[in-house]
C-alpha cells in the first residue's frame, strides 16, 4: 500500500506529497524555498516536526491501553473519578509505581509498594485503607500507569 | 529455523484480558449472528462443547454448566491481533502474518544459541505486553513448525514451546499428530490416507516419495519433504492482493420488505468497494445473492443470484452500489422471508491497469476524488460515518449480537473501567 499521494502541483513547481497512513498521523513541515531557485530561507535549518501529543503520551503503541477511572481512592495522586489513564503493559513494575492491578478478578488502580517481602496496594485518600496482598488472593499487575489525563473542572 | 506462533483460544483470550473473572471458567464465543460456537476456552472444551456447534442446541448445557457466552467482537479481536503482530515484529527480523491469530517467524540468523530460550522470551513478552497467551513451535520447516506448535499446545501447555531440533524430537511430535492435523491435509486426503493405514504424521513422513507423488501429486511431495525437514515453503512476507472479495451477512431477523434488504446490499457493496480501494485495485465482476432461511422448511424457500459484468473495472462505491442494487432488483421477489444476502466481487485488477471501455462516459476522476475524501473521513471518524444515502440509517438488517463485550481498545465510550 502506498502511503503517499501527490497533491496538485504547487505554483512554485514543487510537488507536495501528503501522507496517508491508517494508524498514526505525522504532520510534515513544508519547506518554502526551492534550493536551486534563489536564496534559501534562513528558517529551513530550524524546521522541526510539529508537536505530536500521541508520541509524547505513548511509548509502545501495541502495549499501551487506555482505561477509565471510577471512584476517588486515588485523589491524592490527581487521579479522580472519570480520569483517563494511559497504561503501558511493557513497563516492568517498580516500587511506588501507580499500577492497574487485578485482585480476585476486579480491576483497580493503586500505588504499588513492595516492603519487607510483602506487596501492598496503597490508596491515596484518607478514607481508604492500604490492601495487603496475601497468598490467598488472585493477584496480577495488569500494567503500569504512565499518564493521567483529566479535564479541568 | 522457522517458528509458528499461535494465540491460544484467541477470541476467548481477548475477552479475558479485559475481564479477569473469566479466568478458569468455561467461555465460548459465537459466530456472527450468535449462530454457532467459534472459540472455546480449555474449560469449555473439557465440557465437550464442539467447534461449530449451533448455539441454540447448546443453550441447555451453557445454562447448566454456567458457560460464559459472548457474541463475536471483531473490533476487539482485530485490534488485539494487530498488537500481537506488532509486538512480534519488534522481536524478530522477518515474519509472515498467517491468520488473525497465527504468524510464522523466521529465526534464522538470530543471535541466540538456544532457540527454545528465544521462544520462551517471545512468549513471555507477548503475554506481558498484550495479555494474550501463545504457543510456539520451532522446526526446520514451516510444516514441521506447525506440528511442533500443535505438540506444544497439546502436550506441554505450561511451557507452551516445543523445539524440533533432532530426529528424536521430530519423531515424538510427528507420532503424536493425527494425519488430519497436518498442515495442508484436507478432509479428502485425510480419508484417503487413513484408508491406506496412514493415521499419523510420522507414517506419512516415512512413506515413499513415489507413492505420495502418485496419490497426492506435487503438493503431496512438497508436504512429504517438508515433514522430512527439507524447506519447500519460504516465509511469505508480501500478502498477495485478494483475488475475490465477498461481504455477506445473515440478517438479525428475517426480512421480507425490499427497502431494508436494499440497504444491506448497498452496505455490503460499499464495504467491498472500500476493500478494493484499500488494496488499490478495481473489479469488473459483481455477484449478488439472496436467500431465505434453509432451517425453516415450514416457510417457502427461495435462492437466487445474479452475476453482472461491469463495462469498466471500478472501485467507486457509487458504481458498485448501483450495479449491486441492479442485481438485487433482478432477483428480489415479494412474499419470502429472507435470511441472508451478499455481494461478491472478482475480476480484480490493479487500479493502474484498468482498461476504460470505449463508451465510458463516466467522469472517473471525480469519483476517485470523492472516494479519497470519503475514505479519509471514515478512517478518522469511524466506519460508515459518511455513506451513500441508499445504505440507509435504520440498520434493520443488522446482526444479532446480544452478548457482545465492549470495544475496549477502539471506542472512548467503551474503555475498561478500573476502580479507584
Automatic annotation (TrEMBL), chain A:
Transmembrane segments: none annotated. It comes from the Bacteria. Keywords: Autocatalytic cleavage, DNA damage, DNA repair, Hydrolase, SOS response. GO terms for molecular function: DNA binding; hydrolase activity. InterPro entries: LexA-like, LexA/Signal_pep-like_sf, LexA_repressor, Peptidase_S24_LexA, Peptidase_S24_S26A/B/C. GO terms for biological process: DNA repair; regulation of DNA-templated transcription; SOS response. CDD domains: S24_LexA-like. Its EC number is 3.4.21.-. Residues 29-145 form the Peptidase S24/S26A/S26B/S26C domain. Belongs to the peptidase S24 family. This is DNA polymerase V.
TrEMBL record, chain B:
One of its GO terms (biological process) is DNA repair. Transmembrane segments: none annotated. It comes from the Bacteria. The keyword DNA repair applies. Keywords: DNA damage, DNA repair, SOS mutagenesis, SOS response. Belongs to the DNA polymerase type-Y family. This is DNA polymerase V.
